[in-house]
Here is the input.
Amino acid sequence: MKKLMLLGMACFMGSATYAESVDDKVLAIMEELGAAKKLKRLEKKKDYKNADWKKYSLELIEEYNGMKDIKHEEKMFNDFNVKMLKALEDYKKVLDGSDYDALAKSWKDVGAACKACHEEYK
Here is the structure.
């Protein structure tokens, strides 16, 4: 009976100790950012008034929200993440308005934050 209990505890502890790495979590989130590609296509046309623009923007913000809880071992990564979250927060504020110049500028800020990180981490 003791052997069976020890075996059961070993199996439980083995499965409970596996944790997805931070890098795996980041990669999983990045792979799900399909809305960014859709927005890039619309952005080439400067089609900010397109009904899909807001829809895809909100999808992107939601998809990236998974990064809020990410704490990487590298400070530089965390700094990039904070800048991206801030850029998206500011972008969301202008998204409901009709000032398309402000929207375009804010979208460029999101792109710059994204690009800065991806130049360092690919």
Remarks:
- The two ends are 52 Å apart (CA to CA).
